[in-house]
Amino acid sequence: MKITFLVLGKTDDKYIIEGITKYLGRLKHYIKFDLIEIPDLKNTKNLREDQQKAKEAELLQKALNPTDHIILLDEKGTEFTSRQFSEFLNKKMVSGIQNLVFIVGGPYGFDESIYKLAQGKISLSKLTFSHQMVRLFFIEQVYRGFTILKGEPYHHD
Question: Which residue ranges does UniProt annotate as crossing the membrane (predicted)?
Protein backbone atom coordinates (compact mmCIF):
# COMPACT_ATOMS: atom_id res chain seq x y z
CA MET A 1 0.00 0.00 0.00
CA LYS A 2 1.00 3.57 -0.63
CA ILE A 3 -0.20 6.62 1.30
CA THR A 4 -0.77 9.90 -0.50
CA PHE A 5 -1.29 13.11 1.46
CA LEU A 6 -3.01 15.67 -0.75
CA VAL A 7 -2.98 19.30 0.41
CA LEU A 8 -3.90 22.66 -1.06
CA GLY A 9 -1.17 25.29 -1.13
CA LYS A 10 2.48 25.36 -0.18
CA THR A 11 3.97 25.44 3.29
CA ASP A 12 5.96 28.62 3.87
CA ASP A 13 7.05 28.39 7.51
CA LYS A 14 10.58 27.00 7.74
CA TYR A 15 10.07 25.27 11.08
CA ILE A 16 7.05 23.40 9.70
CA ILE A 17 8.94 22.44 6.55
CA GLU A 18 11.80 21.13 8.72
CA GLY A 19 9.40 19.05 10.80
CA ILE A 20 7.64 17.65 7.74
CA THR A 21 10.97 16.79 6.14
CA LYS A 22 12.10 15.04 9.34
CA TYR A 23 9.03 12.81 9.52
CA LEU A 24 8.90 12.14 5.78
CA GLY A 25 12.48 10.86 6.08
CA ARG A 26 11.51 8.60 8.96
CA LEU A 27 8.36 7.33 7.22
CA LYS A 28 10.20 6.03 4.16
CA HIS A 29 11.45 3.12 6.29
CA TYR A 30 7.85 1.92 6.74
CA ILE A 31 5.76 2.83 3.69
CA LYS A 32 5.75 4.73 0.42
CA PHE A 33 4.35 8.15 1.37
CA ASP A 34 3.77 10.96 -1.11
CA LEU A 35 3.01 14.52 -0.08
CA ILE A 36 1.33 16.31 -2.99
CA GLU A 37 0.85 20.06 -2.79
CA ILE A 38 -1.74 21.52 -5.15
CA PRO A 39 -1.07 25.21 -5.90
CA ASP A 40 -3.30 27.76 -4.17
CA LEU A 41 -6.16 29.31 -6.10
CA LYS A 42 -5.53 32.83 -7.37
CA ASN A 43 -7.87 35.80 -6.81
CA THR A 44 -9.99 34.09 -4.17
CA LYS A 45 -11.21 37.39 -2.69
CA ASN A 46 -13.51 37.68 -5.72
CA LEU A 47 -15.03 34.25 -5.07
CA ARG A 48 -17.87 33.29 -2.77
CA GLU A 49 -17.15 30.46 -0.32
CA ASP A 50 -19.08 27.89 -2.40
CA GLN A 51 -17.26 28.98 -5.58
CA GLN A 52 -13.88 28.62 -3.91
CA LYS A 53 -14.74 25.14 -2.61
CA ALA A 54 -15.95 24.11 -6.10
CA LYS A 55 -12.72 25.32 -7.74
CA GLU A 56 -10.61 23.55 -5.10
CA ALA A 57 -12.65 20.39 -5.70
CA GLU A 58 -11.80 20.52 -9.41
CA LEU A 59 -8.09 20.70 -8.57
CA LEU A 60 -8.34 17.87 -6.06
CA GLN A 61 -10.27 15.63 -8.45
CA LYS A 62 -7.56 16.04 -11.10
CA ALA A 63 -5.04 14.59 -8.62
CA LEU A 64 -7.18 11.54 -7.79
CA ASN A 65 -7.53 8.16 -9.46
CA PRO A 66 -10.73 6.07 -9.54
CA THR A 67 -9.10 3.32 -7.45
CA ASP A 68 -7.94 5.66 -4.66
CA HIS A 69 -9.36 5.06 -1.19
CA ILE A 70 -10.07 8.58 0.03
CA ILE A 71 -10.14 9.75 3.64
CA LEU A 72 -10.83 13.41 4.37
CA LEU A 73 -9.27 15.24 7.29
CA ASP A 74 -12.44 16.92 8.47
CA GLU A 75 -13.59 18.44 11.75
CA LYS A 76 -16.69 16.21 11.69
CA GLY A 77 -14.67 13.03 11.20
CA THR A 78 -13.92 10.18 13.57
CA GLU A 79 -11.39 10.94 16.30
CA PHE A 80 -8.78 8.33 17.18
CA THR A 81 -6.16 7.85 19.82
CA SER A 82 -2.72 7.22 18.32
CA ARG A 83 -3.14 3.47 18.96
CA GLN A 84 -6.56 3.45 17.31
CA PHE A 85 -5.15 5.32 14.33
CA SER A 86 -2.36 2.76 13.99
CA GLU A 87 -5.01 0.00 13.98
CA PHE A 88 -6.95 1.95 11.33
CA LEU A 89 -3.81 2.10 9.15
CA ASN A 90 -3.18 -1.61 9.67
CA LYS A 91 -6.74 -2.52 8.64
CA LYS A 92 -6.37 -0.46 5.48
CA MET A 93 -3.05 -2.17 4.66
CA VAL A 94 -4.40 -5.70 5.05
CA SER A 95 -7.60 -4.88 3.14
CA GLY A 96 -5.74 -4.74 -0.16
CA ILE A 97 -6.04 -0.99 -0.74
CA GLN A 98 -3.31 0.11 -3.10
CA ASN A 99 -3.42 3.88 -2.57
CA LEU A 100 -4.79 5.37 0.63
CA VAL A 101 -5.31 9.10 0.05
CA PHE A 102 -5.76 11.58 2.89
CA ILE A 103 -6.92 15.06 1.88
CA VAL A 104 -6.80 18.40 3.69
CA GLY A 105 -9.32 20.85 2.27
CA GLY A 106 -9.12 24.57 1.83
CA PRO A 107 -10.01 27.25 4.40
CA TYR A 108 -13.76 26.59 4.03
CA GLY A 109 -13.56 22.81 4.00
CA PHE A 110 -14.66 20.54 1.16
CA ASP A 111 -17.11 20.88 -1.67
CA GLU A 112 -19.97 18.35 -1.60
CA SER A 113 -18.46 16.58 -4.63
CA ILE A 114 -15.37 15.68 -2.58
CA TYR A 115 -17.49 14.38 0.32
CA LYS A 116 -19.23 12.08 -2.18
CA LEU A 117 -15.89 10.65 -3.36
CA ALA A 118 -14.60 9.92 0.14
CA GLN A 119 -14.78 6.58 1.93
CA GLY A 120 -14.30 8.19 5.35
CA LYS A 121 -13.45 11.23 7.44
CA ILE A 122 -10.96 11.65 10.28
CA SER A 123 -10.68 14.53 12.72
CA LEU A 124 -7.27 15.19 14.24
CA SER A 125 -8.79 17.10 17.15
CA LYS A 126 -11.73 19.18 18.27
CA LEU A 127 -9.27 22.07 18.28
CA THR A 128 -8.75 24.09 15.11
CA PHE A 129 -5.24 24.08 13.62
CA SER A 130 -3.78 26.04 10.73
CA HIS A 131 -3.59 24.10 7.48
CA GLN A 132 0.19 24.32 7.79
CA MET A 133 0.24 22.76 11.26
CA VAL A 134 -2.16 19.99 10.22
CA ARG A 135 0.39 18.77 7.71
CA LEU A 136 3.08 18.32 10.32
CA PHE A 137 0.73 16.84 12.94
CA PHE A 138 -0.75 14.36 10.47
CA ILE A 139 2.58 13.16 9.07
CA GLU A 140 3.92 12.73 12.61
CA GLN A 141 0.84 10.69 13.52
CA VAL A 142 1.31 8.41 10.51
CA TYR A 143 4.91 7.89 11.58
CA ARG A 144 3.77 7.26 15.17
CA GLY A 145 1.19 4.77 13.90
CA PHE A 146 3.83 2.73 12.12
CA THR A 147 6.15 2.72 15.12
CA ILE A 148 3.24 1.43 17.22
CA LEU A 149 2.54 -1.33 14.68
CA LYS A 150 6.22 -2.33 14.72
CA GLY A 151 6.40 -2.27 18.52
CA GLU A 152 9.10 0.39 18.48
CA PRO A 153 9.69 2.63 21.53
CA TYR A 154 8.56 5.97 20.02
CA HIS A 155 5.04 6.02 21.46
CA HIS A 156 4.33 5.90 25.22
CA ASP A 157 0.88 5.23 26.64
Answer: none
